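Extended Data, panel c. Modelled sequence:
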Amino acid sequence: MNLDVLRELDKSILLAFNGSDNLFVDYFVLTLTSAYTWIALYASLLYMVIKNNENWQKILLVVGVVGLGLLIVNGVNLGVVKPLVARPRPLNNPELQGLIMATNHYMADGYSFFSSHTANSFVLAVFFSLLVRDRIFSVLMIGWSFMVSFTRPYLGVHYPSDVFFGMIFGSTVAVFIYFLYLRIYIRCSDKLHYISTRYTRTGYSFADIDVVISVLILTFIYAAFRAVLSI
């Protein structure tokens, strides 16, 4: 399969996912794609980390490696990849004018390849899934990252390939920072495995995990209500 075929496939998938004639879905997606929508989720993850680590050194270790992961993603993408590849966003591509739908005049600055929204969400979802080790939590966090990723082609600001590489890069960085976290954590504590009905095997309370899950679900409900009110 040559490069031209891949480009055409990329465009075809983009056109299949881009926009709709449904105002509810449009406003729902616009809410989901905003980083401000997920402030409560980020706060609940921080709450969970604070509640389940016995000292500030361990809390700052988690916060530090997450910050490092986001710094790597955005530094590499915004500082190297996007300027080097210089791929115009679909909405700015002359070949797609008249074919791509702009949702409520939504636009994005900069180049298209690859999606920072996607990479950042996968850093968080994959890292915390590895850290917490709870099946329901992991499914919902990965599902959240997929939903955030889906919003980008829908809004016409990224190609599917931008999203795909964002997923791969974000997940790779998440695995890297998790193993970095483990290496440092082992020097601070030997409590890596817990056997309890109240905690995961990495020592995270199911009650605190439920707080994060509840916030995530309530945020989706908020996005749905906001979409209804915006119609």
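The chain is about 70% helix and 0% strand. This feature is highlighted in the accompanying rendering.
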